[in-house]
């Protein structure tokens, strides 16, 4: 199978004027506008959901269970989701998943605003929403390719992440204010309406301009084929190994930050929203800065993952709320430098005919790891405190990054790199 790569960009770094060149595609521009709205509302629901469970149970571990319920379906069925994505229309799948997400969010809003919500209901809705994510998340990853084609794919991936982080900047702050003023229910209602905005945007897309590929026909062994492809491709396998440690330990900020906002700094719902917004500020800066990168190296992925982990570990040592907030921004920047190297390298290292299955493995590791890690971190915080939990969340993946780097260096694989417009290659330096 040959790897599909975009044509070459101008040599050197991108000029700032063309860092958003994928937005010249009308379909992607419309989708991005709706995506900013949707991601803002999604972040609002995440913050409100975590704080609602904390209010109902007075338990950080229960918040961890909530996150686990939402991500467990990906752990169980994520690989099957990739097969579905490869077989059916991406636009049709997104219309179905966004409609279902709207119904679920509006149901949770009604339960909360009527004052009858119980924690088991939040868990059930989170689990069903996780089932929707099994299809929705890998579909979104691959649908970007259909909207912009290979020419703008690298930049579109970055813009897509920037939209997510812009939502993460605005959503938590707005949700925190809403929780203090009128309670969590309105955040759920807004997310339900935002999902319908995405449905409308999908209906308005010019389908004749999509870069569609023929659906993959049914055949035996498609799951095994996808897994074999991942294992046999170093630029897919090793980024996923690194991300598995980060997703289990470092990507549990809802659990960690709710503990720091509630127990360490006594900052309340407003502080919880502010902490999440500070992470998003850094992430947005990191995502936008990453648009200038035209070379993707395997060693960059491992290095950025290790730096992010060390910064996160240092959060457990911050003595004041101001210092904690500043390091949160740095953590967000490092977070995006990792993902803006990891995601494109995985996508661009995979053949377009199998990309849905490859990205389902990517999403499985990303979200499934959080399903495993969230209750673990919640238990750790309740027994050993928020500071210990935060330090462990960074030190374990930092150790993993060092170990992976040593293994790759011994195998002479650490210098593999990809540059837009030419196939990736091994640059081996013998000792």
UniProtKB/TrEMBL annotation:
Classification via InterPro entries: MFS_dom, MFS_trans_sf, TM_effector
Location of this chain's protein in the cell: Cell membrane
UniProt cross-references to PROSITE patterns, sorted A to Z: MFS (PS50850)
Chain ranges passing through the membrane: 60-85, 92-113, 119-136, 157-180, 186-205, 226-252, 264-288, 300-318, 324-346, 358-381, 387-409
Annotated GO MF terms: transmembrane transporter activity
Protein name, as recorded: MFS transporter
Native source organism of the sequence: Cryobacterium lactosi
Topological relation to the membrane, as annotated: Multi-pass membrane protein
Keywords linked to the UniProt accession: Cell membrane, Membrane, Transmembrane, Transmembrane helix, Transport
Residue ranges annotated for the Major facilitator superfamily (MFS) profile domain, each copy included: 1-431
Domain of life the protein comes from: Bacteria
Cellular component GO terms held in the UniProt record: plasma membrane
